[in-house]
Structure formats: structure tokens, C-alpha cells
Amino acid sequence: MTVPVFDSERSYIAPIPRDQPYTPPGHATRGFIAWDLHRNQKVFIKDTWRVDLPGIEREGETYRLMEEAQVKNIAPCSASGDVENQHTLMHLYKHELWACKAKKLLVLHCHYRLVLDIIGESLTEFSSSSEMLRCVVDGLEGKWQS
Fold it and tell me: Computed over its alpha carbons, how large is the radius of gyration of the chain?
């Protein structure tokens, strides 16, 4: 798979997801470990469908802003971006005679990938409650740093 990096893209090798998506259209968020072919290291990839509306910031942009602001304890984000030509189309057909009437507003979504250079541990894999609490404190320091 590929993920945009500035004006190019980076390639990764990732396993086929073990679990099937739980949403009817198959647009669930998935996270998995992959191999970065350019840097020869393991990374974490978040594969998701983001809401594609004006004013909604992409997650990679949020990571970039946090890095610029020197927010503590955030994972380095090495790549992020939209998967080319993969947008939902259901909203285009909502008024067709054959279409089921939607009970909620159909919103355009875009296939999006985010690469983090730190691979987290399972929440059940801490060696002690002290280690778990240290992680919570790290997150709070990142949110409310002075």
C-alpha cells in the first residue's frame, strides 16, 4: 500500500486484515503494523474513512500542528493523506427512485491513511498498574502542558 508524503508517496507492506469490517458498507477504521520500505522499520498505519467536508481538519494536519507547537508525548506522524480516487458516492444517488430513503444525512467520506512511527502496546499488556498510570500522566501532560 502507499501513503502520501509531501509531493510523493511512501510504500508499505502490511498483512491482510484478520477481522472483517463491522459496518455494512465496509468503511470501518482499521489499525495495523506495517513495514516501511523506504526507512526499513515497522510503523503503525491507521486506515480510515474521514468525513470530507469544509472545515474538518485531516488528522495528519493535527499531528503536524502539535509537532510544531512542541506538544509533549505525541507519536511522530511520518505520512498521511487521502487514498487517490476513493470517495463515497452514496450521497449522489439519494434522490433516485431506486434508492432507500436515508434516515440520516449522507455525508461524503474519503479513504485516508495515517502513519505513526511508534507502535503502541495493547491496553492489557502493561507490566504493572504503575506503568499504565504513567501512560495516562504522559497523555495529560501532552494535553495540558504549560
Answer: 18
